[in-house]
Amino acid sequence: xxxxxxxxxxxxxxxxxxxxxxxxxxxxxxxxxxxxxxxxxxxxxxxxxxxxxxxxxxxxxxxxxxxxxxxxxxxxxxxxxxxxxxxxxxxxxxxxxxxxxxxxxxxxxxxxxxxxxxxxxxxxxxxxxxxxxxxxxxxxxxxxxxxxxxxxxxxxxxxxxxxxxxxx
Length: 168
What we know:
Strand content: under 5%
Order of helices and strands: HHHHH
Shape: elongated
Mean pLDDT: 93
CATH topology: Ferritin
């Protein structure tokens, strides 16, 4: 796709984040399965439903633009997910693996926060206020997920991971 205008860039980045969300939907069940901490597993499982809704919002935006909802391969997300997979394959104590899963998930959340913030700004600039509202909703959800992961890490998972080294 040739980028000749802000609208072209907007559509290009919508396609990128659409593919990113599809990649996340494939990764989340694996992360939930690997998580040993109940609250963390639940957070991953709940985020599957949230992510499915975020994909539907993007599809609504594509429909409104009269374009097919298809993505272009999001290399950034592919890299973040590959790093997460690598971490899940490490020989790690379960408590340490949970801390690593949170780290990987927060990297994904921060990537999404940056993408959705930019898209929302483009939507407003282009006069797509309805898109901006949908994108803001997703941005708020990603921020809330990031905060939840921090809370889980700080209240228990990181403490358990720290204690794991003394249990051996």
